[in-house]
Protein backbone atom coordinates (compact mmCIF):
# COMPACT_ATOMS: atom_id res chain seq x y z
CA UNK A 1 0.00 0.00 0.00
CA UNK A 2 1.26 3.46 -0.81
CA UNK A 3 2.26 5.79 1.99
CA UNK A 4 -0.99 7.61 2.71
CA UNK A 5 0.74 11.00 2.87
CA UNK A 6 1.87 10.56 -0.74
CA UNK A 7 -1.48 9.47 -2.11
CA UNK A 8 -2.78 11.90 -4.70
CA UNK A 9 -6.52 11.85 -4.63
CA UNK A 10 -8.38 12.48 -7.89
CA UNK A 11 -10.64 15.48 -8.52
CA UNK A 12 -13.55 13.39 -9.75
CA UNK A 13 -14.63 9.89 -8.79
CA UNK A 14 -17.59 8.48 -10.70
CA UNK A 15 -20.35 11.06 -10.59
CA UNK A 16 -18.74 12.94 -7.76
CA UNK A 17 -16.50 15.96 -7.63
CA UNK A 18 -14.28 15.95 -4.56
CA UNK A 19 -14.05 19.00 -2.30
CA UNK A 20 -12.47 19.29 1.12
CA UNK A 21 -11.17 16.34 3.08
CA UNK A 22 -13.34 15.56 6.10
CA UNK A 23 -11.19 12.99 7.75
CA UNK A 24 -8.91 10.07 7.26
CA UNK A 25 -9.13 6.71 8.87
CA UNK A 26 -7.29 3.47 9.15
CA UNK A 27 -7.55 2.59 5.50
CA UNK A 28 -8.83 5.53 3.52
CA UNK A 29 -9.93 9.14 3.43
CA UNK A 30 -13.29 10.79 3.39
CA UNK A 31 -14.22 13.86 1.37
CA UNK A 32 -17.05 16.23 1.03
CA UNK A 33 -18.21 15.67 -2.58
CA UNK A 34 -20.86 16.95 -4.96
CA UNK A 35 -22.90 14.95 -7.41
CA UNK A 36 -22.09 16.39 -10.84
CA UNK A 37 -25.60 15.66 -12.15
CA UNK A 38 -27.95 16.69 -9.40
CA UNK A 39 -25.75 18.86 -7.17
CA UNK A 40 -26.35 16.76 -4.09
CA UNK A 41 -23.64 16.98 -1.44
CA UNK A 42 -22.42 13.69 0.02
CA UNK A 43 -19.54 12.29 2.02
CA UNK A 44 -17.33 10.15 -0.20
CA UNK A 45 -15.25 7.43 1.43
CA UNK A 46 -12.32 6.71 -0.79
CA UNK A 47 -9.86 3.86 -0.70
CA UNK A 48 -7.35 2.42 -3.17
CA UNK A 49 -8.77 -0.82 -4.62
CA UNK A 50 -5.58 -2.64 -3.63
CA UNK A 51 -5.87 -1.54 0.00
CA UNK A 52 -4.80 -4.54 2.13
CA UNK A 53 -7.58 -3.79 4.60
CA UNK A 54 -10.45 -3.07 2.19
CA UNK A 55 -12.96 -1.71 4.70
CA UNK A 56 -15.06 -0.02 1.98
CA UNK A 57 -15.72 -3.45 0.49
CA UNK A 58 -16.80 -4.75 3.88
CA UNK A 59 -18.96 -1.71 4.61
CA UNK A 60 -20.74 -2.10 1.30
CA UNK A 61 -22.15 -5.40 2.59
CA UNK A 62 -23.84 -3.83 5.57
CA UNK A 63 -25.30 -0.59 4.27
CA UNK A 64 -28.17 -2.29 2.38
CA UNK A 65 -29.19 -4.23 5.50
CA UNK A 66 -29.21 -1.04 7.56
CA UNK A 67 -30.97 1.37 5.22
CA UNK A 68 -33.98 3.17 6.62
CA UNK A 69 -32.90 3.18 10.26
CA UNK A 70 -32.89 6.43 12.23
CA UNK A 71 -29.32 7.63 12.57
CA UNK A 72 -27.99 5.38 9.81
CA UNK A 73 -26.54 7.27 6.83
CA UNK A 74 -28.19 6.68 3.48
CA UNK A 75 -25.93 5.02 0.92
CA UNK A 76 -26.25 7.02 -2.31
CA UNK A 77 -23.79 5.13 -4.44
CA UNK A 78 -20.79 2.85 -4.29
CA UNK A 79 -18.41 1.00 -6.56
CA UNK A 80 -14.98 1.24 -8.09
CA UNK A 81 -13.68 3.94 -10.36
CA UNK A 82 -10.26 3.20 -11.85
CA UNK A 83 -7.95 2.50 -8.91
CA UNK A 84 -10.50 3.83 -6.40
CA UNK A 85 -13.11 2.14 -4.33
CA UNK A 86 -15.76 4.58 -3.12
CA UNK A 87 -18.88 4.83 -0.98
CA UNK A 88 -21.13 7.89 -1.21
CA UNK A 89 -23.14 8.41 1.95
CA UNK A 90 -25.08 11.21 3.67
CA UNK A 91 -22.92 14.18 4.49
CA UNK A 92 -22.90 14.54 8.25
CA UNK A 93 -21.58 16.99 10.85
CA UNK A 94 -19.13 16.81 13.74
CA UNK A 95 -18.20 13.53 15.37
CA UNK A 96 -18.41 13.16 19.14
CA UNK A 97 -14.66 12.73 19.05
CA UNK A 98 -14.19 16.20 17.61
CA UNK A 99 -16.59 17.64 20.22
CA UNK A 100 -14.63 15.76 22.86
CA UNK A 101 -11.42 17.43 21.75
CA UNK A 102 -13.00 20.87 21.55
CA UNK A 103 -14.80 20.87 24.88
CA UNK A 104 -13.48 23.30 27.43
CA UNK A 105 -14.48 21.35 30.51
CA UNK A 106 -12.87 18.33 32.11
CA UNK A 107 -15.77 16.06 31.39
CA UNK A 108 -18.99 16.04 29.39
CA UNK A 109 -22.16 17.36 30.94
CA UNK A 110 -24.53 14.71 32.23
CA UNK A 111 -27.39 15.78 30.00
CA UNK A 112 -25.34 15.25 26.83
CA UNK A 113 -24.06 11.89 28.05
CA UNK A 114 -27.61 10.71 28.80
CA UNK A 115 -28.63 11.73 25.27
CA UNK A 116 -25.65 9.90 23.76
CA UNK A 117 -26.52 6.84 25.83
CA UNK A 118 -30.14 6.75 24.70
CA UNK A 119 -29.37 7.37 21.06
CA UNK A 120 -26.41 5.03 20.69
CA UNK A 121 -28.18 2.19 22.50
CA UNK A 122 -31.14 2.77 20.22
CA UNK A 123 -28.86 2.62 17.14
CA UNK A 124 -27.44 -0.66 18.36
CA UNK A 125 -30.90 -2.02 18.93
CA UNK A 126 -31.72 -1.24 15.32
CA UNK A 127 -28.47 -2.65 13.94
CA UNK A 128 -28.83 -5.78 16.02
CA UNK A 129 -32.39 -6.34 14.84
CA UNK A 130 -30.98 -6.29 11.32
CA UNK A 131 -28.50 -8.97 12.36
CA UNK A 132 -25.45 -6.67 12.33
CA UNK A 133 -22.83 -6.05 15.02
CA UNK A 134 -20.97 -2.74 14.85
CA UNK A 135 -17.78 -3.94 16.59
CA UNK A 136 -16.06 -0.55 16.57
CA UNK A 137 -18.06 1.68 18.89
CA UNK A 138 -16.12 4.85 19.65
CA UNK A 139 -16.61 8.61 19.77
CA UNK A 140 -15.25 9.04 16.24
CA UNK A 141 -17.93 6.72 14.88
CA UNK A 142 -20.82 8.65 16.44
CA UNK A 143 -21.49 11.66 14.23
CA UNK A 144 -24.10 14.40 14.40
CA UNK A 145 -26.36 15.01 11.44
CA UNK A 146 -26.43 18.32 9.62
CA UNK A 147 -29.40 20.67 10.19
CA UNK A 148 -32.28 19.85 10.42
CA UNK A 149 -30.95 16.51 11.73
CA UNK A 150 -28.28 18.01 13.97
CA UNK A 151 -29.75 16.58 17.18
CA UNK A 152 -29.53 13.04 15.83
CA UNK A 153 -26.45 10.93 16.39
CA UNK A 154 -25.55 8.78 13.39
CA UNK A 155 -23.55 5.58 13.53
CA UNK A 156 -20.88 5.40 10.87
CA UNK A 157 -18.02 3.14 9.87
CA UNK A 158 -19.22 -0.41 9.37
CA UNK A 159 -15.78 -1.52 8.23
CA UNK A 160 -15.44 -3.88 11.19
CA UNK A 161 -19.09 -4.90 11.30
CA UNK A 162 -20.26 -8.46 11.04
CA UNK A 163 -23.52 -10.34 10.64
CA UNK A 164 -24.03 -12.22 13.88
CA UNK A 165 -27.06 -13.91 12.35
CA UNK A 166 -25.76 -16.28 9.74
CA UNK A 167 -27.27 -15.11 6.44
CA UNK A 168 -27.82 -18.67 5.27
CA UNK A 169 -28.90 -20.57 8.36
CA UNK A 170 -30.52 -17.56 10.11
CA UNK A 171 -28.90 -18.72 13.33
CA UNK A 172 -26.69 -16.87 15.78
CA UNK A 173 -23.00 -17.31 14.98
CA UNK A 174 -21.33 -19.86 17.25
CA UNK A 175 -19.05 -19.04 20.13
CA UNK A 176 -15.55 -20.40 19.83
CA UNK A 177 -12.52 -20.93 22.01
CA UNK A 178 -10.14 -20.68 19.06
CA UNK A 179 -7.55 -17.92 19.43
CA UNK A 180 -8.48 -15.01 17.22
CA UNK A 181 -7.08 -11.68 16.13
CA UNK A 182 -8.47 -8.70 17.92
CA UNK A 183 -10.94 -6.56 15.98
CA UNK A 184 -12.16 -3.35 17.52
CA UNK A 185 -10.61 -0.36 19.19
CA UNK A 186 -8.22 -0.15 22.10
CA UNK A 187 -10.28 2.18 24.22
CA UNK A 188 -13.76 0.75 24.29
CA UNK A 189 -13.72 -2.82 22.99
CA UNK A 190 -15.05 -5.07 25.71
CA UNK A 191 -12.74 -6.87 28.10
CA UNK A 192 -13.96 -10.21 26.74
CA UNK A 193 -13.13 -9.36 23.15
CA UNK A 194 -10.05 -7.26 23.67
CA UNK A 195 -8.32 -8.93 26.60
CA UNK A 196 -9.64 -12.49 26.40
CA UNK A 197 -9.89 -12.95 22.64
CA UNK A 198 -13.54 -14.00 22.71
CA UNK A 199 -15.93 -13.86 19.77
CA UNK A 200 -17.78 -10.52 19.71
CA UNK A 201 -21.55 -10.54 20.05
CA UNK A 202 -24.28 -8.04 20.92
CA UNK A 203 -23.20 -7.80 24.53
CA UNK A 204 -19.77 -6.50 23.45
CA UNK A 205 -21.24 -3.64 21.41
CA UNK A 206 -23.20 -2.72 24.53
CA UNK A 207 -20.16 -2.92 26.81
CA UNK A 208 -18.29 -0.64 24.42
CA UNK A 209 -21.09 1.93 24.80
CA UNK A 210 -20.86 1.64 28.59
CA UNK A 211 -17.09 2.24 28.52
CA UNK A 212 -17.48 5.15 26.12
CA UNK A 213 -20.04 6.83 28.39
CA UNK A 214 -17.87 6.34 31.47
CA UNK A 215 -14.91 7.74 29.52
CA UNK A 216 -16.94 10.86 28.69
CA UNK A 217 -17.64 11.47 32.38
CA UNK A 218 -14.13 10.75 33.65
CA UNK A 219 -11.67 13.64 33.97
CA UNK A 220 -8.81 12.74 31.65
CA UNK A 221 -10.79 9.78 30.33
CA UNK A 222 -10.52 6.11 31.26
CA UNK A 223 -7.05 5.55 32.63
CA UNK A 224 -5.96 3.06 29.97
CA UNK A 225 -6.59 5.66 27.26
CA UNK A 226 -4.22 8.23 28.70
CA UNK A 227 -0.98 7.05 27.10
CA UNK A 228 -2.35 7.15 23.58
CA UNK A 229 -2.42 4.32 21.08
CA UNK A 230 0.05 1.61 22.17
CA UNK A 231 3.03 1.44 19.83
CA UNK A 232 4.66 -1.70 21.14
CA UNK A 233 3.38 -5.13 22.17
CA UNK A 234 4.51 -4.37 25.67
CA UNK A 235 2.48 -1.16 25.76
CA UNK A 236 -0.53 -3.02 24.38
CA UNK A 237 -0.13 -5.75 27.02
CA UNK A 238 -0.01 -3.10 29.70
CA UNK A 239 -3.12 -1.41 28.33
CA UNK A 240 -4.99 -4.72 28.29
CA UNK A 241 -3.89 -5.44 31.84
CA UNK A 242 -5.17 -2.05 33.00
CA UNK A 243 -8.48 -2.53 31.23
CA UNK A 244 -8.92 -6.11 32.45
CA UNK A 245 -8.19 -5.28 36.07
CA UNK A 246 -10.21 -2.05 36.26
CA UNK A 247 -13.13 -2.73 38.59
CA UNK A 248 -16.50 -1.18 37.66
CA UNK A 249 -16.85 0.36 41.11
CA UNK A 250 -13.48 2.08 40.68
CA UNK A 251 -13.89 3.43 37.18
CA UNK A 252 -17.44 4.58 37.99
CA UNK A 253 -16.65 6.15 41.36
CA UNK A 254 -18.59 9.38 41.73
CA UNK A 255 -20.77 8.79 38.68
CA UNK A 256 -24.53 8.34 38.93
CA UNK A 257 -25.23 4.64 39.66
CA UNK A 258 -26.76 3.72 36.27
CA UNK A 259 -23.34 3.86 34.61
CA UNK A 260 -21.83 1.19 36.84
CA UNK A 261 -25.02 -0.86 36.71
CA UNK A 262 -25.02 -0.68 32.92
CA UNK A 263 -21.41 -1.85 32.69
CA UNK A 264 -22.07 -4.72 35.09
CA UNK A 265 -25.23 -5.64 33.20
CA UNK A 266 -23.34 -5.81 29.87
CA UNK A 267 -20.68 -8.00 31.43
CA UNK A 268 -23.27 -10.41 32.78
CA UNK A 269 -24.93 -10.98 29.41
CA UNK A 270 -24.55 -14.39 27.84
CA UNK A 271 -22.89 -14.76 24.45
CA UNK A 272 -26.12 -15.03 22.43
CA UNK A 273 -28.37 -13.12 24.80
CA UNK A 274 -30.42 -10.21 23.53
CA UNK A 275 -29.58 -7.08 25.52
CA UNK A 276 -32.54 -5.29 27.05
CA UNK A 277 -32.07 -2.08 25.05
CA UNK A 278 -35.36 -0.56 26.16
CA UNK A 279 -34.51 -0.92 29.81
CA UNK A 280 -31.30 1.02 29.43
CA UNK A 281 -32.78 3.69 27.21
CA UNK A 282 -35.38 4.17 29.95
CA UNK A 283 -32.74 4.21 32.68
CA UNK A 284 -30.76 6.96 31.00
CA UNK A 285 -33.88 8.94 30.18
CA UNK A 286 -34.94 8.72 33.80
CA UNK A 287 -31.48 9.72 34.96
CA UNK A 288 -31.79 12.83 32.79
CA UNK A 289 -35.25 13.58 34.17
CA UNK A 290 -34.14 13.06 37.76
CA UNK A 291 -31.51 15.71 37.20
CA UNK A 292 -34.00 18.18 35.82
CA UNK A 293 -33.11 17.71 32.15
CA UNK A 294 -35.63 17.16 29.37
CA UNK A 295 -36.61 13.56 28.75
CA UNK A 296 -36.02 13.93 25.02
CA UNK A 297 -32.89 12.16 23.79
CA UNK A 298 -32.20 14.96 21.28
CA UNK A 299 -28.54 15.85 21.43
CA UNK A 300 -28.15 19.61 21.66
CA UNK A 301 -24.69 21.06 21.21
CA UNK A 302 -23.38 23.11 22.83
CA UNK A 303 -25.37 22.05 25.90
CA UNK A 304 -27.98 24.69 26.68
CA UNK A 305 -27.17 26.88 29.66
CA UNK A 306 -27.77 27.22 32.54
CA UNK A 307 -28.56 23.53 32.83
CA UNK A 308 -24.99 22.44 32.11
CA UNK A 309 -23.83 20.35 35.01
CA UNK A 310 -20.78 18.24 35.13
CA UNK A 311 -20.47 15.17 37.24
CA UNK A 312 -17.75 15.60 39.78
CA UNK A 313 -15.77 12.54 40.82
CA UNK A 314 -17.19 12.77 44.33
CA UNK A 315 -17.70 9.36 45.94
CA UNK A 316 -21.41 8.73 46.32
CA UNK A 317 -23.32 6.20 48.34
CA UNK A 318 -24.48 3.59 45.89
CA UNK A 319 -26.14 0.26 45.87
CA UNK A 320 -25.23 -2.42 43.36
CA UNK A 321 -27.68 -5.03 42.22
CA UNK A 322 -26.34 -7.61 44.69
CA UNK A 323 -26.90 -5.21 47.53
CA UNK A 324 -30.33 -4.40 46.18
CA UNK A 325 -31.16 -8.07 46.29
CA UNK A 326 -30.02 -8.21 49.89
CA UNK A 327 -32.17 -5.24 50.67
CA UNK A 328 -35.25 -6.82 49.17
CA UNK A 329 -34.68 -9.97 51.14
CA UNK A 330 -33.89 -7.90 54.20
CA UNK A 331 -37.21 -6.09 53.96
CA UNK A 332 -38.79 -9.17 55.50
CA UNK A 333 -36.87 -8.57 58.71
CA UNK A 334 -37.51 -4.90 59.04
CA UNK A 335 -37.84 -3.38 62.49
CA UNK A 336 -40.89 -1.22 62.24
CA UNK A 337 -40.65 0.30 65.71
CA UNK A 338 -43.85 1.92 66.84
CA UNK A 339 -45.35 2.46 63.44
CA UNK A 340 -49.12 2.33 63.46
CA UNK A 341 -50.80 -0.86 62.40
CA UNK A 342 -53.30 -0.82 59.58
CA UNK A 343 -56.85 -1.92 60.11
CA UNK A 344 -56.68 -1.49 63.86
CA UNK A 345 -59.03 1.38 64.45
CA UNK A 346 -57.08 2.94 67.29
CA UNK A 347 -54.26 3.61 64.93
CA UNK A 348 -56.36 5.65 62.61
CA UNK A 349 -56.91 8.40 65.13
CA UNK A 350 -54.93 11.55 64.42
CA UNK A 351 -53.87 10.40 61.01
CA UNK A 352 -54.87 12.70 58.26
CA UNK A 353 -54.87 10.77 55.01
CA UNK A 354 -53.96 13.90 53.06
CA UNK A 355 -50.80 14.47 55.04
CA UNK A 356 -47.93 12.23 54.20
CA UNK A 357 -46.12 10.91 57.26
CA UNK A 358 -42.94 12.72 58.21
CA UNK A 359 -40.75 10.06 56.66
CA UNK A 360 -42.55 10.22 53.36
CA UNK A 361 -41.98 13.94 53.07
CA UNK A 362 -38.24 13.72 53.36
CA UNK A 363 -36.39 13.10 50.14
CA UNK A 364 -35.36 9.51 50.75
CA UNK A 365 -31.75 8.61 50.15
CA UNK A 366 -30.18 5.58 48.64
CA UNK A 367 -28.31 4.08 51.53
CA UNK A 368 -25.72 1.45 51.74
CA UNK A 369 -27.24 -1.48 53.64
CA UNK A 370 -25.48 -2.87 56.63
CA UNK A 371 -25.19 -6.56 55.71
CA UNK A 372 -25.29 -7.63 59.36
CA UNK A 373 -28.19 -5.53 60.50
CA UNK A 374 -30.72 -6.29 57.73
CA UNK A 375 -32.46 -3.09 58.68
CA UNK A 376 -34.94 -0.86 56.94
CA UNK A 377 -33.59 0.50 53.69
CA UNK A 378 -35.25 2.98 51.38
CA UNK A 379 -34.76 2.25 47.73
CA UNK A 380 -36.26 5.50 46.58
CA UNK A 381 -33.96 8.27 45.49
CA UNK A 382 -35.94 11.33 44.56
CA UNK A 383 -38.76 13.36 45.84
CA UNK A 384 -39.33 15.42 42.75
CA UNK A 385 -41.29 18.05 44.61
CA UNK A 386 -38.29 19.02 46.66
CA UNK A 387 -34.94 20.40 45.82
CA UNK A 388 -32.16 17.92 46.16
CA UNK A 389 -28.40 17.84 45.79
CA UNK A 390 -26.95 16.35 42.67
CA UNK A 391 -23.59 14.66 42.52
CA UNK A 392 -22.01 18.02 42.05
CA UNK A 393 -23.44 19.34 45.28
CA UNK A 394 -25.55 21.93 43.44
CA UNK A 395 -29.24 22.24 43.87
CA UNK A 396 -31.22 20.22 41.41
CA UNK A 397 -33.99 22.04 39.57
CA UNK A 398 -37.45 20.56 39.90
CA UNK A 399 -38.76 19.09 36.64
CA UNK A 400 -41.07 21.35 34.67
CA UNK A 401 -44.45 21.89 36.30
CA UNK A 402 -47.34 19.97 34.83
CA UNK A 403 -45.20 17.22 33.38
CA UNK A 404 -45.86 13.96 35.15
CA UNK A 405 -43.24 11.40 34.41
CA UNK A 406 -43.44 7.80 35.39
CA UNK A 407 -40.92 8.53 38.16
CA UNK A 408 -43.05 11.35 39.51
CA UNK A 409 -46.25 9.33 39.46
CA UNK A 410 -44.55 6.44 41.22
CA UNK A 411 -42.98 8.69 43.85
CA UNK A 412 -46.38 10.24 44.48
CA UNK A 413 -47.92 6.77 44.83
CA UNK A 414 -45.24 5.74 47.32
CA UNK A 415 -46.13 8.77 49.41
CA UNK A 416 -49.85 8.06 49.21
CA UNK A 417 -49.27 4.45 50.20
CA UNK A 418 -47.22 5.58 53.18
CA UNK A 419 -50.09 7.86 54.18
CA UNK A 420 -52.91 5.35 53.61
CA UNK A 421 -55.01 4.45 56.62
CA UNK A 422 -57.02 1.46 55.45
CA UNK A 423 -56.66 -1.58 53.28
CA UNK A 424 -59.26 -0.49 50.74
CA UNK A 425 -57.20 2.62 50.01
CA UNK A 426 -54.10 0.48 49.72
CA UNK A 427 -55.92 -1.79 47.26
CA UNK A 428 -56.89 1.19 45.14
CA UNK A 429 -53.31 2.50 45.19
CA UNK A 430 -51.97 -0.90 44.14
CA UNK A 431 -54.35 -0.77 41.16
CA UNK A 432 -53.04 2.69 40.30
CA UNK A 433 -49.49 1.42 40.59
CA UNK A 434 -50.32 -1.40 38.21
CA UNK A 435 -51.92 1.07 35.82
CA UNK A 436 -48.88 3.35 35.83
CA UNK A 437 -46.67 0.36 35.03
CA UNK A 438 -49.00 -0.86 32.29
CA UNK A 439 -49.12 2.57 30.68
CA UNK A 440 -45.37 2.51 30.23
CA UNK A 441 -43.79 1.12 27.12
CA UNK A 442 -40.97 -0.58 28.99
CA UNK A 443 -42.82 -1.86 32.09
CA UNK A 444 -39.52 -1.94 33.83
CA UNK A 445 -39.59 -1.65 37.61
CA UNK A 446 -37.35 1.33 38.34
CA UNK A 447 -36.13 2.41 41.73
CA UNK A 448 -39.26 4.51 42.13
CA UNK A 449 -41.27 1.33 41.48
CA UNK A 450 -39.28 -0.50 44.12
CA UNK A 451 -39.97 2.42 46.46
CA UNK A 452 -43.70 1.81 45.95
CA UNK A 453 -43.21 -1.84 46.95
CA UNK A 454 -41.12 -0.71 49.89
CA UNK A 455 -43.87 1.64 51.10
CA UNK A 456 -46.44 -1.09 50.61
CA UNK A 457 -44.38 -3.54 52.55
CA UNK A 458 -44.00 -1.11 55.40
CA UNK A 459 -47.75 -0.69 55.57
CA UNK A 460 -48.39 -4.42 55.60
CA UNK A 461 -45.51 -5.89 57.53
CA UNK A 462 -46.98 -5.71 61.00
CA UNK A 463 -48.49 -9.06 61.96
CA UNK A 464 -51.51 -7.38 63.56
CA UNK A 465 -52.55 -5.53 60.48
CA UNK A 466 -55.59 -7.60 59.75
CA UNK A 467 -57.60 -8.20 62.87
CA UNK A 468 -59.22 -11.46 61.83
CA UNK A 469 -57.05 -13.71 59.69
CA UNK A 470 -59.25 -15.65 57.35
CA UNK A 471 -58.84 -19.28 56.45
CA UNK A 472 -56.61 -19.99 53.50
CA UNK A 473 -56.89 -22.96 51.21
CA UNK A 474 -53.91 -25.20 50.61
CA UNK A 475 -51.59 -24.06 47.87
CA UNK A 476 -51.27 -26.41 44.95
CA UNK A 477 -48.68 -29.15 45.41
CA UNK A 478 -48.39 -31.64 48.21
CA UNK A 479 -47.21 -30.65 51.62
CA UNK A 480 -47.15 -26.98 50.85
CA UNK A 481 -47.65 -24.81 53.86
CA UNK A 482 -50.64 -22.52 54.17
CA UNK A 483 -48.39 -19.60 54.84
CA UNK A 484 -46.56 -18.19 51.87
CA UNK A 485 -42.93 -19.16 51.97
CA UNK A 486 -40.36 -16.83 53.40
CA UNK A 487 -37.92 -14.86 51.30
CA UNK A 488 -35.26 -17.27 52.52
CA UNK A 489 -37.05 -20.06 50.73
CA UNK A 490 -36.99 -18.14 47.49
CA UNK A 491 -33.77 -19.77 46.32
CA UNK A 492 -35.27 -23.22 46.79
CA UNK A 493 -38.37 -22.16 44.94
CA UNK A 494 -36.23 -21.09 42.03
CA UNK A 495 -35.18 -24.65 41.35
CA UNK A 496 -38.63 -26.11 41.95
CA UNK A 497 -40.44 -23.76 39.64
CA UNK A 498 -39.33 -22.11 36.51
CA UNK A 499 -38.71 -18.40 36.81
CA UNK A 500 -41.91 -17.50 35.02
CA UNK A 501 -43.83 -19.92 37.15
CA UNK A 502 -42.89 -17.96 40.22
CA UNK A 503 -44.91 -14.90 39.44
CA UNK A 504 -47.85 -17.07 38.55
CA UNK A 505 -47.57 -18.88 41.88
CA UNK A 506 -47.18 -15.62 43.75
CA UNK A 507 -50.35 -14.46 42.00
CA UNK A 508 -52.13 -17.51 43.36
CA UNK A 509 -50.69 -17.17 46.84
CA UNK A 510 -51.70 -13.54 47.08
CA UNK A 511 -55.34 -14.41 46.46
CA UNK A 512 -55.22 -16.82 49.40
CA UNK A 513 -53.19 -14.73 51.83
CA UNK A 514 -54.90 -14.42 55.18
CA UNK A 515 -53.02 -11.61 56.86
CA UNK A 516 -51.17 -8.41 56.16
CA UNK A 517 -48.00 -10.16 57.23
CA UNK A 518 -48.42 -12.74 54.50
CA UNK A 519 -49.20 -10.03 51.95
CA UNK A 520 -46.10 -8.13 53.06
CA UNK A 521 -44.03 -11.26 52.55
CA UNK A 522 -45.46 -11.78 49.09
CA UNK A 523 -44.69 -8.17 48.18
CA UNK A 524 -41.06 -8.79 49.12
CA UNK A 525 -40.95 -11.97 47.05
CA UNK A 526 -42.57 -10.20 44.13
CA UNK A 527 -39.93 -7.46 44.30
CA UNK A 528 -37.16 -10.03 44.53
CA UNK A 529 -38.40 -11.98 41.49
CA UNK A 530 -38.69 -8.83 39.40
CA UNK A 531 -35.29 -7.64 40.53
CA UNK A 532 -33.67 -10.94 39.60
CA UNK A 533 -35.33 -11.13 36.21
CA UNK A 534 -33.54 -9.81 33.19
CA UNK A 535 -34.83 -6.31 32.50
CA UNK A 536 -36.75 -6.05 35.79
CA UNK A 537 -39.89 -6.02 33.70
CA UNK A 538 -43.35 -6.52 35.10
CA UNK A 539 -44.84 -9.26 32.94
CA UNK A 540 -48.42 -10.43 32.47
CA UNK A 541 -48.12 -12.67 35.51
CA UNK A 542 -46.64 -9.75 37.43
CA UNK A 543 -49.72 -7.67 36.63
CA UNK A 544 -51.81 -10.68 37.66
CA UNK A 545 -50.07 -10.61 41.03
CA UNK A 546 -50.77 -6.89 41.47
CA UNK A 547 -54.41 -7.35 40.53
CA UNK A 548 -54.64 -10.19 43.07
CA UNK A 549 -52.99 -8.08 45.73
CA UNK A 550 -55.32 -5.14 45.09
CA UNK A 551 -58.34 -7.43 45.20
CA UNK A 552 -57.22 -9.05 48.43
CA UNK A 553 -56.62 -5.71 50.09
CA UNK A 554 -60.00 -4.40 49.00
CA UNK A 555 -61.70 -7.55 50.24
CA UNK A 556 -59.98 -7.21 53.58
CA UNK A 557 -60.43 -3.45 53.77
N1 LIG B 1 -20.71 10.86 6.41
C1 LIG B 1 -19.81 11.66 6.96
N2 LIG B 1 -19.98 12.99 6.95
C2 LIG B 1 -19.06 13.81 7.52
N3 LIG B 1 -17.92 13.38 8.10
C3 LIG B 1 -17.70 12.05 8.12
C4 LIG B 1 -18.63 11.13 7.56
N4 LIG B 1 -18.14 9.89 7.72
C5 LIG B 1 -16.97 10.03 8.36
N5 LIG B 1 -16.69 11.32 8.60
C6 LIG B 1 -15.49 11.85 9.27
O1 LIG B 1 -14.37 11.08 8.89
C7 LIG B 1 -13.82 10.38 10.03
C8 LIG B 1 -13.38 8.98 9.58
O2 LIG B 1 -14.52 8.29 9.08
P1 LIG B 1 -14.67 6.71 9.17
O3 LIG B 1 -14.53 6.29 10.59
O4 LIG B 1 -15.91 6.30 8.47
O5 LIG B 1 -13.44 6.28 8.31
P2 LIG B 1 -12.47 5.07 8.51
O6 LIG B 1 -11.50 5.16 7.39
O7 LIG B 1 -13.20 3.82 8.61
O8 LIG B 1 -11.87 5.50 9.91
P3 LIG B 1 -11.23 4.64 11.09
O9 LIG B 1 -10.13 3.86 10.50
O10 LIG B 1 -10.77 5.74 12.03
O11 LIG B 1 -12.32 3.84 11.68
C9 LIG B 1 -14.94 10.37 11.05
O12 LIG B 1 -14.49 10.34 12.38
C10 LIG B 1 -15.66 11.68 10.76
O13 LIG B 1 -15.01 12.74 11.41
Keywords:
3 domains, alpha+beta, binds adenosine-5'-triphosphate, Transferase(Phosphotransferase), domain 1, two-stranded antiparallel sheet, 39% helix, 557 residues, Phosphorylase Kinase, domain 1, elongated
Question: What does the model show?
Answer:
The protein is α+β, with helices and mostly antiparallel strands. It has three domains: 79 residues, Phosphorylase Kinase, domain 1 (2-Layer Sandwich), CATH 3.30.200; 198 residues, Transferase(Phosphotransferase) domain 1 (Transferase(Phosphotransferase), domain 1); 117 residues. The protein is built from 18 helices and ten strands. The strands form three sheets. Strands 1-2-3-4-6-5 form a six-stranded antiparallel beta sheet, covered by helices on one side. A two-stranded antiparallel ribbon has the order 7-10. Strands 8-9 form a two-stranded antiparallel sheet. A hairpin with a 2-residue loop joins strand 5 and strand 6. The longest helix has 20 residues. It is elongated. The termini are far apart. About 22% of the residues have low confidence. The chain binds adenosine-5'-triphosphate. Adenosine-5'-triphosphate (ATP) binds next to strand 2 and strand 6.
Question: Topology, please?
Answer:
Layout: E1 12-13, E2 16-24, E3 29-35, E4 41-48, H1 55-66, E5 75-81, E6 84-90, H2 96-102, H3 110-129, E7 132-133, E8 142-144, E9 153-155, E10 162-163, H4 191-196, H5 202-216, H6 233-245, H7 248-251, H8 257-268, H9 277-290, H10 321-330, H11 358-361, H12 406-419, H13 423-439, H14 447-460, H15 490-496, H16 499-512, H17 516-532, H18 540-556
Antiparallel strand pairs: 1-2, 2-3, 3-4, 4-6, 5-6, 7-10, 8-9
Helix pairs in contact: 3-5, 3-9, 5-8, 10-17, 12-13, 12-14, 13-18, 14-17, 16-17, 16-18
The structure holds adenosine-5'-triphosphate.
Pfam families: Pkinase
Keywords: ATP-binding, Kinase, Nucleotide-binding, Transferase
InterPro entries: CK1_Ser-Thr_kinase, Kinase-like_dom_sf, Prot_kinase_dom, Protein_kinase_ATP_BS
Amino acid sequence: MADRRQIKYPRVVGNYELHQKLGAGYSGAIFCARNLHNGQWVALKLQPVDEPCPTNKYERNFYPALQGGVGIPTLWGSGTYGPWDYLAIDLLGASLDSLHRQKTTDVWDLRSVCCVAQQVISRLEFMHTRGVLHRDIQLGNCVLGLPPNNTTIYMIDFGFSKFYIDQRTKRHIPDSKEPRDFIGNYWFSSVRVHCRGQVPSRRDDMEAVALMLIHMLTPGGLHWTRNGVPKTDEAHERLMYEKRTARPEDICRGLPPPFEEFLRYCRRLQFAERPDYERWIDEFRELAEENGFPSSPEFVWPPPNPEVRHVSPKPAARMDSGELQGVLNGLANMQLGDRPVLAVRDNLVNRDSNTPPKDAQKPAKVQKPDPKAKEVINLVSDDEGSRDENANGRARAAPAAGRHTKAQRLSQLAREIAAATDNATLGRLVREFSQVMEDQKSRMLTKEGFAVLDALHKQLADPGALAAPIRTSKPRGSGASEVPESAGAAGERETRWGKMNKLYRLGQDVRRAGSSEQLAQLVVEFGAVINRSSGRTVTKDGFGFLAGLAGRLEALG
